[in-house]
Amino acid sequence: MKKSLHFFLAALLVFSFVASQAIAKDLTAKDFVDVAKKSIHEISVSEAKVLLDKGGHIFLDCREPKEFKMGHVPGAINIPRGLIEFKVGKKIPEKNARIIIYCKKGGRGCLACCTLCKMGYHSAVNMAGGWVAWEKAGYPVE
């Protein structure tokens, strides 16, 4: 019995050490985006364009106001990613709203989408490729 208890404690100690080393790793912005991507749904710009034409979806631009003023998806609202937790409830009070989030290239959009999903906006999706892909496709802009 003592041997198995010692083995268990040794194994627990090794596991704790390994787990603490994994937690201690400094994460990069890419690491955060990669983790967020695993928990959200993304759509292509062509799918987003179909949904824009269909109507009934809110396009949420999470870039900074200066970026938004330089051009955005027609009808989009702007809530910068850094303020999303504080402003989304006022601008989009309906948690069942169908939201298409985008940023410049996709990273901030992934993080914002992950945040919205955690806040109960389960119909939020990220537009892969962001504003750059939208413009490259030649879709309409405001």
Task: Summarize the structure in words.
There is one protein chain. This protein is of the alpha/beta class. It has a domain of 98 residues: 3-Layer(aba) Sandwich (Oxidized Rhodanese, domain 1). A five-stranded parallel sheet has the order 1-5-4-2-3. The chain is globular. About 8% of the residues have low confidence.
Topology overview:
Elements: H1 2-24, H2 29-37, E1 42-43, H3 45-54, E2 58-61, H4 65-69, E3 77-78, H5 84-91, E4 99-102, H6 107-118, E5 124-127, H7 130-136
Parallel strand pairs: 1-5, 2-3, 2-4, 4-5
Helix pairs in contact: 2-6
Cα gyration radius (Å) = 20 Å
Name of the CATH architecture of the domain at 39-136: 3-Layer(aba) Sandwich
Number of strands: 5
How far is it from the N-terminal to the C-terminal residue, by CA?
73 Å
Task: Let me know the CATH homologous superfamily of the domain at 39-136.
Answer: Rhodanese-like domain
SSE run: HHEHEHEHEHEH
Shape: globular
Query: Please, what is the average pLDDT?
Result: 88
Put simply, the count of helices is 7
Indicate the structural class: alpha/beta
- Unreliable stretches covering 5 or more consecutive residues: 5-15
Largest sheet: 5 strands, parallel
Major β-sheet strand ordering: 1-5-4-2-3
Proportion of residues in helical segments: 40-55%
Q: Which percent range describes the beta-strand content?
A: 5-15%
